[in-house]
Write a structure and sequence with these properties.
The chain is an alpha/beta fold and about 325 residues long. About 35% of the residues lie in helices and about 20% in strands. It has twelve helices and 14 strands.
Length: about 325
């Protein structure tokens, strides 16, 4: 099985570009994961490869819980974990790409921005390798390079200085497919993903990725590490759509196990809360922006059904969901 953690020295270095390209390339056989707390990247992962992405957050979960979660959803031939910020960032809170990849014994591929430098890239890599000698860094991809000559200069230096690091390849500066696209996080414009993936992987050795990432990760025997909660003979409505989109996949699975029946309601399509629902959960997301408000301002049937439900039954709402339960946000009428 192929297991990879994609990380970097900081944000905006190319993690998302490389992760996106790999998820699309392996789209028929990959389970994506996101290290740390994040509602946006997992949605993007699913849009790219069609499989739900799972958060691995060792700040709010114990190591046993993170292990259990990883292996519980490890049902594909390929697992790709996207890191958070820089490789060690978050370690003071117990959750970083370093700590999670070490816990799960997953090799890390570092994306290093090589623009305007060459020997110094190797020095930066040395600092990352020496900072924690038990790190999982096994390979690098060089990003933002202008030519094959530039790549060969950096590759030669890294291979001279770091015998155990594999240089997998490089990503060209100013990719044509990204010339008028902000990749980070437009969930609703994926028309260029195929071309982006092709261009990003053009100069990357995919066979070498297998040599780096195929490790013997035997599934350990882990007892269920979460408190057991008695199943409820009730029906839950989850308001989850493009506005109220902040819902971890594992939380959804848990709620489906906890309640006798769970239905998903799309407020942007003016769907109503079923009369026989006992509880309503409105997810977080965005409601206060002009674009988001346009999606829901005319959802009168949804609003009226929510008000009716609230008169005698429970509503749990967070973030944008809680805002929607107010009378107004600035000049925008809510519920």
């Amino acid at each position: 099985m192929l297991n990879l953690c994609i990380s970097a020295i900081a944000s905006n270095q190319g993690k998302t570009i490389l992760t996106t390209a790999l998820l699309y390339h392996f789209r028929d056989s990959v389970r994506p994961y996101k290290i740390g707390p994040d509602f946006i990247d997992p949605q993007f992962h699913k849009k790219v490869c069609g499989t739900d992405s799972v958060n691995l957050d060792s700040f709010i979960m114990s190591e046993k819980q993170v292990e259990w979660l990883y292996y519980h959803y490890r049902d594909k031939d390929v697992a790709i974990l996207e890191g958070v910020m820089g490789f060690y960032d978050g370690e003071n809170r117990g959750c970083s790409a370093y700590s999670v990849s070490k816990l799960l014994n997953i090799p890390t591929v570092l994306v290093l921005d090589g623009s305007g430098s060459y020997i110094t890239i190797s020095a930066v890599l040395k600092g990352l390798l020496d900072y924690r000698i038990d790190n999982t860094i096994k390979a690098v991809v060089l990003n933002n390079l202008s030519s094959i000559m530039h790549y060969q200069l950096i590759k030669k230096q890294i291979e001279l200085d770091h015998k155990n690091i594999v240089v997998l390849g490089w990503i060209k500066k100013s990719l044509q497919s990204l010339s008028d696209t902000h990749l980070g996080l437009d969930l609703y414009d994926l028309s260029k993903i195929k071309q982006i993936s092709k261009e990003v992987l053009e100069h990357i050795d995919l066979d070498a990725i297998y040599r780096v990432g195929v490790v013997e990760n035997q599934k350990p025997k882990i007892d269920y590490p979460f408190p057991k909660i008695e199943k409820r003979d009730k029906k839950l409505a989850i308001v989850n759509d493009k506005n109220f989109s902040f819902l971890y996949y594992d939380n959804l699975c848990f709620l489906q196990e906890l309640y006798k029946d769970v239905v998903i309601v799309d407020s942007t399509k003016d769907e109503v809360i079923p009369l026989d629902c006992d509880d309503v959960y409105i997810c977080g997301g965005y409601i206060e922006t002009d674009k988001a408000y346009e999606n829901i301002k005319n959802s009168h049937k949804f609003k009226n059904s929510l008000i009716t439900h609230s008169q005698t039954k429970n509503i749990y709402a967070e973030c944008a969901g809680l805002l929607y339960l107010s009378k107004r946000v600035d000049d925008k009428q809510m519920s």
